[in-house]
Hints:
single chain, alpha/beta, Aldehyde Dehydrogenase, Chain A, domain 1, Aldehyde Dehydrogenase, Chain A, domain 2, 3 domains, seven-stranded mixed β-sheet, six-stranded mixed β-sheet, 20 strands
Amino acid sequence: MTATDTPATTDTFGFEATPVEAIAGLVDTARAAYDAGRTRPIRWRLDTLAKVRAALVDREAELLDALKADLGKPTFEAWTADIGFGISEIDHAVAHLRTWSRARRVRTPVAFQPGTSKLVPEPLGVVTVIAPWNYPVQLALQPMVAAVAAGNAVVVKPSELAPASAAVIADIVNGLGDPALQVVQGGVAETAELLAQRVDHIFYTGNGRVGRIVMHAAAEHLTPVTLELGGKSPAIVTSGANLDVAAHRIAWGKFLNAGQTCIAPDYVLVEDSVHDALVDKIKAALTEFYGDDPQQSPDYARIVNAAHFHRLEKLLDSGTVVAGGVADADDRYLAPTVLTDVDPDSPAMADEIFGPVLPVLRMGSVDEAVAFVNERDKPLALYVFSERDAETAAVVAGTSSGGVCVNGTIFHVSNPDLPFGGVGPSGMGAYHGKFGFDTFSHLKPVHERSTKLDPPMMYPPFSAKKEGLLRKGFLLPDPRDAVKHVRAKLSKP
């Protein structure tokens, strides 16, 4: 996820950077609350999540105004992708929290019986959540929700590049009055100081450059990290696709939040025979969505800041503009733009675009598209459009990505029963739903032995006979595994 380091104003919605010298104390306060056992009870977790949910509902109008100020977000888009997403995550966690928190019984090998084995979820301790600017509410609160559900104390760092949203988030968290939940506001200096503190997990969402800085800082304390990064997420459209549906879903996924979405389709690879038809249908979809002048549409967002705008504007020279191309720096407006005749070595294909510019490239075959994707870093998301099962299967099996959506975009991230995360340069670790709970938990293995039997055979001295029996006993299969083994043999032709 690409972001700039442009300083934010400090007077928007009450945004004010945290004094650097105060940050260690905030972490210490969270640590003291955790060490006192405040966050461990299920009741505290449920009550805290309920308070956060109530704040999101009660302060909806304020949050919508903040998102409009930061990113020009349309009301419905802001609610669904930021506020509503957070509420949904809380509801899912509350519904399943008691189940997730229970010890998970596992099998015990025959050789180690009588005894029982289980996995006991326990919180990690104090965790840091460093959020990005593009979905400032969702991506600050969703990880916090998972961390709280798992019983951790949390220090949240909203993005200074979305200062209005950051101010409201800080007010919500601080308004809970809970020492286990702390907020750090600010930019590079404040983030660096926060990263210098000893915590038990760091959750970072942003770009790969800063991700490396986070990992380096974490290494000082051997702190585990979750990195939600980004990359160039392709959309592959074959001649077997429903072009009308593909055009609508690609256009929606790409130009949501003016393209400032880490899993937005970054570019399209389309089979040559349907290239022109797809481009025409994407252009028609844009007119349908935003009218003849998207700048006047109430449903189209703005670029986050001037630096980001000017970076994107330069990409318009990477190909032939067949739709959009209009730029207004004063309004931070860049029209939804489609490029054709794009050289694979052009600037638009070098790094994640993270804006409303969509390169469309021709491909000769599905195999060619798969090879093209595999020559590049593993993306955070991959989209394939085809009505032919063999084609979609070939793409899914032949590529590696953080997640895949077939005949759609974005929506795989909305299922709380699917993990969201990257692979390779697009990130490490995952969250959402139970996957978030597990990310912020240590599954502690516990084996309990019976004292009713204490066979002397297991203790020295070891004779040859004793050793032979012990070896056989050690390798004795679990009865259920033995049955499966026999069944597998019998099923062979």
